Amino acid sequence: MVKDIQHTDFQSEVLDSDMPVVVEYWHNQCPACEEMKPVYEAMEGHLSGRVKLTRMNLLESRENRVHAIKQGARSTPTFMIYCGGRPIGAIIGVRTLGEMESELGALIRVSDSCLRSTPIE
After folding, report:
1. Buried residues in 72-84 as b, exposed as e (16+ CB within 10 A)
2. What separation in angstroms does the CA of 93 have from each of 9, 32, 63, 110, 117?
3. Full strand arrangement of the beta sheet holding 3-4
4. Which of 29, 67, 71, 80 could serve as 7's disulfide partner, Cβ 3.0–4.6 Å?
5. 3 state DSSP class of 119
6. What range defines the domain where residue 92 resides?
7. If you ran DSSP here, which 8-state letter would residue 22 be given?
8. Chain-centre distance of CA 76, in angstroms?
9. Degrees (nearest 5) of the Cα angle 91, 82, 48?
10. pLDDT tens per residue, range 3-24
């Protein structure tokens, strides 16, 4: 299941995660975000156990919006991929399920490399 997070959860849910994390920056007044909702949720079955899927609603708080801007999300939907506490890529806008699988798959291969090169403390 895609996990809803707030700016206050970002450190524990994303930066401190021991696996790659995708954060969807979205809001419920965004038609493209609504179009992507079933596509993103379908990705859970394809990526289970390899990547954590999260989403942050930018209309829930001003702090969520400020956080998204600081992370580089300038439009919605933006899917930011994090590995080892840092962003490694982004997917912006509407994609089909096949396109999303392909693009996320490529970024996951990058994250595999990221995890191997990230020192374990």
Report:
1. ebeebbbbbbbbb
2. 24, 7, 22, 21, 30
3. 3-4, 52-57, 21-26, 78-83, 86-92
4. 67
5. coil
6. 3-117
7. E
8. 12
9. 85
10. 999 999 999 999 999 999 999 9
Query: Residue 2 class from Cβ within 10 Å (0-12 exposed, 13-18 middle, 19+ buried)?
Result: middle
Write out pLDDT tens, residues 22-67.
999 999 999 999 999 999 999 988 887 889 999 999 999 999 999 9
Q: How confident is the model at residue 121 (pLDDT cuts 50, 70, 90)?
A: very low
Q: Give CA–CA dist 89/112, Å, rounded.
A: 13
State the CB neighbour count (10 A cutoff) for residue 87: 13
- Distance, in Å, from the CA atom of 47 to the CA atom of 97, rounded to the nearest integer, reads 13
What is the CATH classification number for the domain harbouring 86?
Answer: 3.40.30.10
